[in-house]
Fold these 3 entries.
Entry 1:
Amino acid sequence: MSAARPRTTLRTLAAVAALPLLLTACGYGSESNDDGGQAKAASGAKKLSADSVKIGYFPNLTHGTALVGVQKGLLQKELGGTQIKPSTFNAGPSEIEALNAGSIDIGWIGPSPAINGYTKSQGKSLRIIGGSASGGVKLVVNPKKIKSLDDLKGKKIATPQFGNTQDVAFLNWIAEKGWKVDAQSGKGDVSVVRSDNKITPDAYKSGSIDGAWVPEPTASKLVSEGGKVILDEADLWPDKKFVITNIIVSQKFLKEHPDVVEAVLRGSVKTNKWINANPEKAKASANAALQKLSGKALPAKVIDPAWKSIDFLDDPLASTLDSEAKHAVKSGLLEQPDLKGIYDLKPLNKVLKAEGEDGVDDAGLGTK
C-alpha cells in the first residue's frame, strides 16, 4: 500500500525516526515505577497464545479506559494467565516508536500520532482496533486579556506538542478564521507556543502564554488558576463527538496473537461499560491510578469538571479521524495521506456482538 509521508520539515516526527538516542528523554519505553495497581495474572490461570502483552498509555484522563482497566484489574481478568506489562508515555511519537520497536504491543493513543505512525510506515506498522474516548479538549484563556474568540489574534496560545492532535485542531481552527500562522514556527496572526502539558499551567501563571488549547486535566488545571473556557472543541464537531483516544496494535502482534488482542478489546469494552455505569467510582479509580503513577492525585476542583467532559466509548469515530487527517493537510503539517487499511475493527465488532452491542463502522478505511 502506498501512502504519502509527512513532510520532512516535521521536525518532531523526523527526530523520532532519526534520533533514537533521544527517545529516553521523550519517555520512550518509560515503564512507570508503580504499575498503577494492576492485577497480577491469577496463579494457575490459563494463558492465551502469549505469556504477556505489553500495553502503553498516557497518565492522562483522556486515557481513562486504560487507567481504570489496569487499576481495577478489568483488563487482566480477560487475559487470564497472560500477564499485562504496562508502560506509560508522555508523547505520542515516543509511544509509536515503542510500538515499532516491539517495546509495546498495544497502546492507547491520540489520532494524530496514529495517523503519522501509519503513514510514515507506508501502512505497515499499526492498525487502529478500537476507540476509547471522545471530547475532553478545551481552549482556556486569560479572561483579563481575551474576552472573545476574535481577541486571540496577536496572543500567545499553547498547544501540547508540535503536530500533536490539539496542535492540528488549533491550527485548523485558525485557518478557518482566515488568519495566517506558519505551521512549523507557530508564528503569525496568533503565536502558537508548543508547551508540554506539565509546564503549561506554570507558563500561564507567569503570563508567558495567554491561553492554551489542551486536553484534560490540563484544561481544568488552567481554570483552577483563573482561566476561562472560551471554546469546547466538542462544539466544533457533528453530534459533539470526535476521537481523542484510539486503541492501536502492531500488525505483527495482531497477526501472531489475535486471541490476546481480542481479550484486551473485551477488557476495554467491559471497562468502558463499568465507567459509564459507575462514573463516581470510575473517577476515583482513575485518580488513584494517577496518584500511583505520578505521586499526586488531582484535587476535586480539577478532576470533577475534567471527568465530566470526557465520553468513554468503544466506537473509534473513524469519520472524525479522517477529518482530522484533512485538517493536518490543510494546516500544512501533513501531505495528503492514504489511510485505507488503518482500521481493523473485526475483532472489536466480534466482541461487541458477544456483548449484545451494535457494531462500529470504519468509514471505508478498514482492511479487506
Entry 2:
Amino acid sequence: MRKSYFIVGAFGLSMLLNACEKKVEIQLPYEGDKIVVNSLIQPDSVVYIRVTRSVPSKVFDDAGYKDIPDAAVSLTANGVSLPLQLQTIKGLSYYVSGEKAVLGQQYRVAVTAPGLKPVTGTDTLVAAPLANAATAQRNSNRVQFTLKDRAASADYYRIRIYRTDAGSGQVTFLLFRLDPAFNNNLVDFFSKGNYNSLIMSDERFNGKPVNFVLQTADPLTGDGDITVEVSALTRSSYLYFNTLAAQKESGNALVGNPARVFTNITDGYGIVGGINTKRMTFKIE
C-alpha cells in the first residue's frame, strides 16, 4: 500500500481536508483488498467516518479509491451505540454521528462489507493543548507561541500554520521549520528543509513550558489572518501522522525502503484517532 490509502477522512475538521497532499508513488507488496477506515475524532464535534476499499500501489489515480456502498458501519462510545447518517460532502460519502464526541469516552468504529474481512478501530480522546500567546511581525518570518506541557502523561502534538486571505477567505498552509537560533532543547527536530506540519512527543520538555519560535519559508506580508494550529494527539494519532510524514520522506529519497504508515484498524487500513485542536488566530502586527 502507499500513502493514499491513509488520507484522513475527518471532514468535521475542515482544516485537515484543506491541507496540501503531495503524491508519493511508492510501490509496496499488495496484501489483497481490505476495508479502509479514516476518522479523526475531535471533542465537541460530530464524528465523521470515511470508508473506502484499498487498491494496489500501482494504481496512482485517486479516483481509484472507491466508496463501499453496501458497507455496514457502526459507532459506539463506551459500548453505547450511536446512530450514524450517510451524507455526501464535497462529492465524498461520510458516515456522520448525530451526537458530538465527548472527552473521557472510548470510541469504536466497526465496518463490515460483503467479500471483505470485517474491521474495527478504537481510540480515546485527548484534552486540548495548553497553547497561547501566538504572535508574528509583519515582513518577518518568525512566528512564536507558548506551549505548557502536562507532566502527568506522555503527550503528543502536531503544529501547523496557515494564512486566511482577507478577501477570498482562502486558506493556505505555510511551510516552516523550527528556528535554529532558538529552541535548543528541540535540536532533534531541526532540519534544513521546511514542512507544513511538525509532529512531536513531549519527551524533550515533559511538564515544562516551551516558547516555540517557528521560521516560515517566506516573510509574512499582506493582509489577512495568521493561525497557529496546535493539536494534541493520542498515541495512535501521533504514530499515524509521524509514520505518514516518514513515508513522504522515504518517497522523496533516492535510496532506502519506503516506510509503512501506522494503522490501528484491525484486519484493514486507516486510522480511528483522537485529536484536539486549538487554533490561535491573529493579525500580523
Entry 3:
Amino acid sequence: MTQYLDCVIVEHNPSNKTIDKSVIWLHGLGASGHDFEPVVPELGLDTQLAVRFVFPHAPRIPVTVNGGMVMPAWYDILEMSLDRKVDVVQIEKSAAAIRDLIQREIERGVNPENIVIAGFSQGGAVAYQTALTYPQRLAGLLTLSTYLAVEDTSNYTAINKDLPIKIDHGTQDPVVPVVLGQRANETLTNQGYQVEFNTYPMAHQVCLPQIKAIGQWLNKVL
C-alpha cells in the first residue's frame, strides 16, 4: 500500500464542478505544506476552473549545511556554493514520492495533462526532476527561486519536451543567487524546452505581482 506524503489540500472551485485539474506545489527547506496555502486566493484564477492544490509536507531529515539539524527537507544540501553539491539519491526519492501524488490525482479523476508541478527553492529542484522525467504529458512546470540540482538530463522524457515551463527568480536573492535561475533557463532553452523566465526585484521570496502573473499562467496552461 502506497504511503503518501502528508499534504495540505486547498480547492479552488467557485462553480462547484467536479475537480478535473490539480497543482502539486512543493515548499522550500525548513518550511511546510502550509507555506503557499495563502497564495491560492491571490492568484486570480478563472472562476470556471475547478482545481485541487496539493501542498505536500517534506519529510524531516538532517541537513548538512545547517549543522546536521533535523528539519523538513526534500534532500540534503552538502555545501552552499554555486555548484551546490546535493544528495541526488534523496532528490530522486522525493521525486518518486511526488510521482505517487500525481498517480493519486489521476486515480481521483484528473488527467495528467491537467496537472501542474510547482516548487519553491528546494521544492523547485524536486519539481524539475519530477516533471522533466515524468512518463506522461503534464500541464506545466513552475519553478520559483530554485536551480537544476541534477545535472544528468539523460532520463528526461520526450513526451514533456514541449511542457510549458515558467521560471521566476528574485534579482536580490542571497540564498539561491539569480545566476542559478538563469543557468537553468539556459540549459533547458538550449535543449529545446519552452521556457518563460522572469525576474523580480526581491530576495528569496515571492511577491504579489509575481503571484498575479503565476495565476495568469495557470489560467493559460490549465
